[in-house]
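Consider the tokenized backbone below.
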């Protein structure tokens, strides 16, 4: 089991949005949220605009991050967002075999 911290989730979203918008990751700001009605969301600011990502968009960014940063190919079903003191992502993979 691999656990991504809130900072890593934010980095994943920044890298993902920067690549999609063809801007620098430093030019993207992210705030993670959880609400009973909407679940996990991320508010993203880039190029002077605000955009909301839903959980599936966040997981897409995490999947890309796992592949580029950890060389792990995971499936959506293997990722679960969790809220304790902060939002984390639990990735159900065997890290020994992933590297």
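A designed sequence for it:
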């Amino acid at each position: 089991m691999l656990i991504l911290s809130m900072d890593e989730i934010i980095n994943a979203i920044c890298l993902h949005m920067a690549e999609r918008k063809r801007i620098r990751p430093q030019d993207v700001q992210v705030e993670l949220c959880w609400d009973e009605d909407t679940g996990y969301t991320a508010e993203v600011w880039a190029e002077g605009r605000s955009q909301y990502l839903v959980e599936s968009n966040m997981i897409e960014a995490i999947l890309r991050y796992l592949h580029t940063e950890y060389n792990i190919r995971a499936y959506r079903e293997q990722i679960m967002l969790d809220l304790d003191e902060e939002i984390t992502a639990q990735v159900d993979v065997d890290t020994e075999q992933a590297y």
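Residues 2-98 form one domain.
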